[in-house]
Structure formats: C-alpha cells, structure tokens
Amino acid sequence: MTGALAVGIAGLGTVGAGVVRLLADHAALIEARAGRKVTVVAVSARDRARNRGVSLEGLRWYDDPVALAADTKVDVVVELIGGADGPAHDLVMAALAAGKPVVTANKALIAMRGSALGAIEGASIRFEAAVAGGIPVIKALREGLAGDRIAGFAGIFNGTCNYILSRMRAEKLDFATVLADAQAQGYAEADPSFDIDGIDTAHKLAILAAIAFGREVDFGAVHVEGIRGVSALDIAFAEELGYRIKLLGIARATDAGIETRVHPAMVPLAAPLARVDGVNNAVVIEGDPVGQIVLQGRGAGAGPTASAVVADLIDLARGRAAPMLGVAPQALARRAAVPMAAHRGAYFLRLMVVDQPGVIADVTAVLRDHGISLESMLQHGRSPGDAVAVVLVTHVTQEAAMAAAITRLAALESVQVPPALIRIETA
Amino acid sequence: MTGALAVGIAGLGTVGAGVVRLLADHAALIEARAGRKVTVVAVSARDRARNRGVSLEGLRWYDDPVALAADTKVDVVVELIGGADGPAHDLVMAALAAGKPVVTANKALIAMRGSALGAIEGASIRFEAAVAGGIPVIKALREGLAGDRIAGFAGIFNGTCNYILSRMRAEKLDFATVLADAQAQGYAEADPSFDIDGIDTAHKLAILAAIAFGREVDFGAVHVEGIRGVSALDIAFAEELGYRIKLLGIARATDAGIETRVHPAMVPLAAPLARVDGVNNAVVIEGDPVGQIVLQGRGAGAGPTASAVVADLIDLARGRAAPMLGVAPQALARRAAVPMAAHRGAYFLRLMVVDQPGVIADVTAVLRDHGISLESMLQHGRSPGDAVAVVLVTHVTQEAAMAAAITRLAALESVQVPPALIRIETA
Ligand SMILES: NC(=O)c1ccc[n+]([C@@H]2O[C@H](COP(=O)([O-])OP(=O)(O)OC[C@H]3O[C@@H](n4cnc5c(N)ncnc54)[C@H](OP(=O)(O)O)[C@@H]3O)[C@@H](O)[C@H]2O)c1
Ligand SMILES: NC(=O)c1ccc[n+]([C@@H]2O[C@H](COP(=O)([O-])OP(=O)(O)OC[C@H]3O[C@@H](n4cnc5c(N)ncnc54)[C@H](OP(=O)(O)O)[C@@H]3O)[C@@H](O)[C@H]2O)c1
C-alpha cells in the first residue's frame, strides 16, 4: 500500500460535485477497494462563490483549470468541465504533457480527439463515465470480453431521447409536447439538440466502436439521425406490429468494414432493448465466443456518473491499466468505414396516400423496380379522397435501394407528405 | 511488452478444451489485447488418448495435474478439473505454494475454500468464469462498481434450472417431464441434484456476496432450496397474478447483517429478471450511488466460460490485479449472517382445501394469529367436497411467522396436502 492518491478535479457541476461527494461519503470503502486513500486536494470551476452542496474546505482552488495540471501535489487530473475544445481540452493536454493520468466523463472530447490523445506517448486517460454513465461497459468490452471477437453492439445511450420516446408511447403524446414537458422537468436541456439530434449518442457510439473493434475513434464516419421525426402515429403502428421505437447507436463488423449509425429503430418487443424505458441506458453486445451480453443501468446523473469516475480512480490507485482503445496505438486495426448507403436491413415505411384505385399498385411497382420485396402491408379503414396511412414492412434490402425508391415514392401524385422511414433492428 | 505468458491447463473437458481452442483461434487478437502472446505450453487430463477436438501437438502432457505447478516453463496454472477437493484443490495449492497465479472456473472450490485461499500470502487467484459464465460480473462488482456501496443483488445463476422453469411455463409441463427431457437433450446432468437443488446457485451466490460486501466467503450461511417442489399449478397461478417463477440467488445487506438465500421466487413480469429465459443467466445489482445495474448473458457452455477464463489470463498478462474479494484480507468486514427466519418479505401461499363452509375463516384466523396480513386471495371455481386451490398473497411479513403459520395450516383438517410457499421478490 502506497500513499494517498491525490486528486485534482476541474469542473464542479452535476458530475464534479457528485464525485467530490462520493469520495467523501464512501472514503473508507474506497480506501479498502483502492488499497490506499483517494483524496481530493485541489479543484477548479468558474464561480468560486457558488454553493455546490459539497464542502470544498481545505482544497486548493484554481480559477484556471489548466493550473491544476501544474500543481505538484496533484497525482491525477479529473476533467469534468465538458466540451471537445476549450478549457477541457487544454487541461487534458497539459496534464498528459506533465505525465499525469487523466480521468474524464467527457464523451465529446474522446469522440473528437480520442485518437490524437491516445497517440500521445505514455498517455494515461480513463473515461468509463463517458459512455452509459454508471454501466461499466468500457471495462466490460476492453477487459471482460478481451478474449472475444466483437461482431457488433447496439445500445440506448441517451436517456433524454429514451425518456421522450417512452413517454410518447405510454401517453400517446407527440414529440413537441413531451419535449416541452421534459424541458420543464429538467429531463431535457434548454437547447436539446445535442441529445435529440443524436449527437450525444454518436459520440458514445464512436468511442465504444473504437474499443470493440480495436481501431481509431471515427466520429466522422457515424451516420446520425435524431428523434425529431418520430411521430405518435408511427409509434402506434410500431405497437401494432409488435415493435418499440428506440434511438439506437449501432456498430457492426461486416465483410466490407465497420458500420456505425445512430437512428430511430423498430425493435421487436421480445428483444432486450425493447423494454428499456425512461432514462435508462442499455447495450447488447455480440461476441464470439461469449454470445450475447446485455448491460443495463442509469446512463447519466450525478450518482451513476460519479460511480464510473471513482471506479476509474480506483483502477488507477490499484495500478490497473489498459491501452486507451484496448490495444496499443500501433496495433490498431485499419478497417474501412461502411457508408450508410451500403447498409442492409429491413425497413418500416409509412406513406400518406390518397385513397383511390391504383395507388397501391403504383407504390408496389416502385418498390419492385428497386428490387425491394415486402414482408407485410398494413392499412386501416378507408376514406375515399382523404389521405390514409399505408404501412409497408420490407424484407432485408439495401439502404441505397430504399433511398432511391423513397425519392420516387415521394414524387408520386397520390403520396401526400414525405414518406416516413424507420429501420428495423433485431437487438 | 514482455515475453509470452506461458499457460498450463489442467482439465480438458468442456471448458478446458474451449480455452485451448479460443487461445488458438483468437491468438492474434488476444496478443494485441494482452500486449503479449498467451500460449498454452502444458496440459493435464486423465485420458491422454481421448479426442478432445483440439490439437495438443507440441504441448507437454501431465497425467498428474499437480505436476503442472512444478513445470518451470509454466507461468500460470489454469484449473478446469472441478470439485472443492481432490486434484483441483491439490493443484491450486501447489501452484500458489510455487508462487504461480491461478485462473479457475471452479465455483465449488472458491465457495468452499475461497477464504482459506485468499488468506494465503501473495496468492493470485482469478475466477471470473466461476460465476455467470461469460458475464463479467465479478469484474463489474469488484472494479466497475468499486466506488459503490452494494445494497444487494439478485440473480439467475443456473441455466439448467432456468431452462426447466422456462419450459414448464411455456409448455405447461410438470417438473419431472421437463427434467427427463432436459437430461435427454444434455441440458441437465444425469445426476441433476447439484443444479436443481440449488447448490450450484448457492456456490455462485456465496462468491459474489463475499465480493459485493467485502467479507469472507460464507457458503454455510446460504439458505438453499431448489426447484423440485415447483409445480405446474403454481406456475399457472404465478402467470395469473402477473409473476414468473425463477430460481434466484439473493444477497442483501440489512441492518442485522448479510442475508444470502437461494430459492424459487415469484418475480413481477415488469422486473428485469422475469423475462430472462432458457439457459441465460442474469444479475440485478443495487448500488449506491449507481442505482440498479442489470447484466445478462450465457452462464455456461464452452464458449462463454472460455471467454471469461481468457479474460482473466489477459488481465494477468497486462498485470491488472485486484484482491481476491475486492479488498485486502485484513480489510474484510465482519458482518453477521442473517438467518432465514429473520427474513422479511411477501409470500405466495397455496393451499389445497376441502371446499366447505368455514375453511377460509379457519385459514385467515391462523394468519391473523401470526400477524400476517393479506394483500390478495384467489380461488377458482367451486367443487363442494373436493380439494380446491386457494392462493393467498401476503404483505411483507417475517419468515418465522410464516413458518409457524404454515405448520398450523398444514395441521388443519380441511387442508389436504402440504401448503406450497413461494417467496415474492421485486427484482
Ligand atoms: N451530467 C451528466 O449526467 C453526465 C453524464 C455523463 C457524462 N457527463 C459529462 O461530464 C462532464 C461534466 O458534465 P456536467 O453535467 O457535470 O456539467 P455542468 O453541470 O455544466 O458542470 C460543468 C462544470 O465545469 C465548470 N467550468 C465550465 N467552464 C469552466 C472553465 N473555463 N474553467 C473552470 N471550470 C469551468 C463549471 O463551473 P461553474 O460551476 O463555476 O459554472 C461547472 O462546474 C461533461 O463532459 C459531460 O458530457 C455528464
Ligand atoms: N461446463 C460449463 O459450462 C462450466 C461453466 C462454468 C464453470 N465450469 C466449471 O469448470 C470446471 C470444469 O468443468 P467442465 O464442464 O469442463 O468439466 P468436464 O467436462 O467434466 O471436464 C473435466 C476435466 O477434468 C479432467 N480431470 C478429472 N479428474 C482429473 C484428474 N484427477 N487429473 C487430471 N485431470 C482430471 C478430465 O479429464 P478427462 O477428460 O481425461 O476425463 C476432464 O478433462 C468445473 O469446475 C466447472 O464447475 C463449467
């Protein structure tokens, strides 16, 4: 047992204050698990006067977070400011340059700058909290499944989106209504774009995919769609067809390379992700020879996120280490990114058509022209002259064919509004 | 990067052959993840002539597994023979005495001898495969949730029992029929007692509870009941009441100490464990501040178990270590084991009674005498003179009161067969 691990924390918001509190509240337990004391010695945030609900007595204060890295009494820098650039990035670079290990919850930073950071000689950077909050999914992939070849994974990585979709379904409300209410209740940010447009999910997906497949973090390759276009109508159709709609982050190894995509998806009710509701996160990993592993838990919030940050600190205190992306930088695989147009899957397609003779024949002719075959078709009621919803579920086909067909379908005179398309997944 | 990690494997059955195969098939991937080659150099089993479906060419063979430990070329001993005593125990003791790390899948050994092994100065022993096969639950508890105070956990740890209960429910068959079929199909052993009487689950529970609460492995304290008494009738009643019957291993920290128990339990359909079917394992962990974490996957079989063994080998190759039970032996907590009589929970109670006036009054009077209040009562049809099933669901009460009440109920003249009791859990 060596001396205490001296921690410097930059950022004392939701997560930072949570970490200070956890290290204090569970000090004895953490000392036993870490084999030594883990003690906060210095902190940084913008507003020194702000009450954060935790005691900062006896801790050195820095207005400039970068100064934390230079504090000779600080053994490890915990970055909980956020953002891929600016003070968070400056601090992490300064800490690594000073040879100090870094622990962070910053998914934007790792997704955007992960490869550059990982390439820094001797860099020690841990970020379990950046993906799926309290679920130790990075540890599971990088260590627990280290003997497995990962075929792919699919997950619910954004609690805000999952909360909104869960409430839309349960209460049969539309997106705008639930979003406004979620904002009022603090489940969604005032500027919700980061969450609902899928960017946050894409950050996490890019990080996990790099670890799963042992290759560079490639945020740019991720196909990203959010949940703004998910309608109450399609949620109801999903229900009728035995699906739930979830915003998924999906990564798959195919013969052509690695496919990474974020979009709303229909998931069969019996699949592990279908019943993950509210602010929960979950991920289904397919590995050889382990088979299917499912991990579920709280993906955000002060407690779950602090749990992951402190686990990283305990790993550090115990000297447990792994290369940032599971393998040494020079061992990272070069695997092509598969463009979305090459994706193959089944599709849910909803058209609003004028209910008149010949419309279905026109629609199915377009699909046939693009080699798309149908598994089922659904149409409710009839109202001659009015627009009625026609739902088509396809067999496995290629995204490019689907996109071309949709362009033609949208141009049909009998098709009233842009067709709605939701991909069908089996996870 | 140092030289190869030289592995000696004793036991080349389902798991041992699986490990040899995985190390060969994923050699390059494992080398990248481990930072060095992981190479089998020596093996031991009983029958040298037996075809195990894997190549043993170039490997030193030992008839006596204990001799593996003395092989100076062997860096790590992998024990895959099984059993708490005999050659498995001898081998592990010899390896530890020789200062060699041990990796094992042997839950009986760890459950029965874990505390003694952990107390050996400098002992390095890894056993991720011993609990829940391919699910990295030991790593999750010991490292991933190292900052959390664990309130408890509940899990499905035996695939054979879960398979039998799943089929009994889905096909409305009785226990004996499904067991016989499971044996014919290789899902259950010829001597199934170890699985169906709950012993295997209790081994795993004892191991996980020690890690979760940082105290000695206390197999003797586990209350153990198996699934022989689960009837098709009660499965049907469970269905009607919105429950599934699962064999659970449960550990909880209460004010009085640690409660550990294995028994069939009714789980509400909405709970994470209710829909875990077939040979799957799953565990629900409650931690502070992480909240609820669910881990699910294959709990046995060559592939999932080998995945866990190889993950342990990679940890070893990377120098990642943790104390056997999460904290140093001298830091283990002394926490009382709570006897089953002190357990508090809700109960499902089924009586077969003669359908005559006054019977229900007699039954409810007994419950009242023992301070047991009812949440609901269920009785189907009426057939005067014949035995009918009466189902009672209690509010939370104490096991001791319940046991006393059942003794009195069983003695009532109108009660035809011994009452069936199944505890209700919320996980
Ligand atoms: N919230 C979650 O549930 C969650 C979950 C997983 C990961 N994360 C990640 O954790 C990180 C922190 O998130 P959060 O929710 O805790 O954010 P937050 O509540 O907005 O807190 C940010 C903190 O950074 C400080 N800060 C901002 N700019 C600074 C500067 N220039 N110099 C020094 N300090 C500065 C702020 O100081 P003041 O307090 O003085 O303004 C504040 O304490 C982000 O990377 C986020 O993505 C969060
Ligand atoms: N099977 C699973 O899915 C699973 C899952 C988790 C954990 N485990 C644990 O893994 C261990 C191995 O299980 P298994 O299913 O692989 O067992 P198994 O198929 O019965 O294999 C046992 C092996 O041990 C060898 N052996 C027995 N006595 C020996 C002796 N005196 N000297 C040398 N070798 C001896 C046998 O040799 P021969 O082949 O020559 O007879 C055989 O190769 C057990 O502790 C079990 O609890 C198994």
UniProtKB/TrEMBL annotation, chains A, B:
It comes from the Bacteria. The keyword Transcription does not apply. Its EC number is 1.1.1.3. Pathway: Amino-acid biosynthesis; L-methionine biosynthesis via de novo pathway; L-homoserine from L-aspartate: step 3/3; Amino-acid biosynthesis; L-threonine biosynthesis; L-threonine from L-aspartate: step 3/5. GO terms for biological process: methionine biosynthetic process; threonine biosynthetic process. Residues 348-423 form the ACT domain. The keyword Ribonucleoprotein does not apply. NADPH binds at residue 107. L-homoserine binds at residue 189. It is an enzyme of class 1 (oxidoreductase). NADP(+) binds at residues 10-17. Coiled coil: none annotated. GO terms for molecular function: homoserine dehydrogenase activity; NADP binding. Signal peptide: none annotated. The active site is at residue 204. Keywords: Amino-acid biosynthesis, Methionine biosynthesis, NADP, Oxidoreductase, Threonine biosynthesis. NCBIfam families: PRK06349.1. Belongs to the homoserine dehydrogenase family. This is Homoserine dehydrogenase.
